[in-house]
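[#protein-structures] MJ: dropping ornithine aminotransferase here for a structure pass
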Amino acid sequence: MTTPSFHTEALRVIDTAETHLANNYNPLEVVVSRGEGSWVTDIEGKRYLDLLSAYSALNFGHGHPAILAVAQEQLNRLTLTSRAFHNDKLGIFAQALAALCGKDLVLPMNTGAEAVESGIKVARAWGYRVKGIPADAATVVVAHGNFHGRTTTIVGFSDDASARDDFGPFAPGFVQVPFADAAAIEAAIDDNTAAVLIEPIQGEAGVIIPPEGYLRAVREICTRRGVLMIADEIQAGLGRVGTTFACDREQVVPDMYLLGKALGGGIVPLSAVVANRDVLGVIQPGQHGSTFGGNPLAAAVGLRVVEMLESGEFQTRAAALGEHLETGLNALIGQGVTDVRVAGLWAGIDIDPALGTGREIAEKMLARGVLVKDTHGQTIRIAPPLVIRATEIDWAIEQLRVVLAG
Ligand SMILES: *Cc1c(COP(=O)(O)O)cnc(C)c1O
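AK: finished. structure tokens for ornithine aminotransferase:
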């Protein structure tokens, strides 16, 4: 199937990468050189359906024309000013994003981990300045199995050994409780608790969907106990699950949204903390910042992304196609699949260990022209671009059926 010329060229590219890159990833053996919509093309010209979408950073697919157009226009006008000066894109982006979230204020950053770090800083400052927690005593309640990024503070409250081991000492002030257990959150809260930080659906953990009522219970507890509810919607938000935010599934509005990934339209790193003035208003000049945060290129792209979400078109698509996906995947239960969890166009598929690891299944899917990613050993996580077609979903599921049938 692969020609000798592909092997020569692809292996050379992979060898160069492996020789010069830090070894912090273990990519599948494919060298992608182009992308359009839901499809990418490797350097030999072979096409693959991209069911990972860069972990939801490509919710609108590769090279969405509306996003590309605004990025290209902005590239030619102005790309960076730093926040030392105003630029003509940042204010309107913040206005639109705040409105999408139903909040007052936006703090723009770049990566998801930075949004999480920023959210923790804001929550602690709110804890001291508004709630009256004694200096340096503020705590944040987090969930087991969480994934919030890779900085030293964040990995310090992860329970994934490979993310943590040998990277300590870690910042204190975090309390872990089981995920999807509202009573455990209630029990962990005391006078020094500033915030509860959760993913409304745990993505990296394998698309773990809490039982209905959990988010509402967390909201109620946080309100009653005077604690901020922070929703890390970096992967779950912005249309992925069939609603604008995963919290919308239970009509819950957190005190703080953490956004990233798809916010940058698959073009630029763009993240944000979004909250009301009584929370985010605690940050004053000099207390937080970022050289690239709020740059006009990212703001122009982010504004277009928000405009695309305002119509509700992508959310509706994700909801409808998600049902289609769920039906197709459920039919594989007992045929090599042991469990499936689906929320919109997002799925965790547990593979029967007798048929191989998640990684081995991902390699076989690659050979059949479908890009997926394993997580936690036996799980395949898929997050197709929201522009994918129903027939493409059917084709991908058929490839999985064939792979599992051996
Ligand atoms: C990806 C992710 C992050 C971190 O984002 P980066 O841009 O990789 O730093 C944080 N939280 C969640 C839920 C994520 O999925």
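MJ: nice. The radius of gyration is 21 Å.
AK: one more thing. Residues 55, 111-113, 116, 147-149, 199, 203-204, 232, 234-235, 260-261 surround pyridoxal-5'-phosphate (CB under 6 Å).
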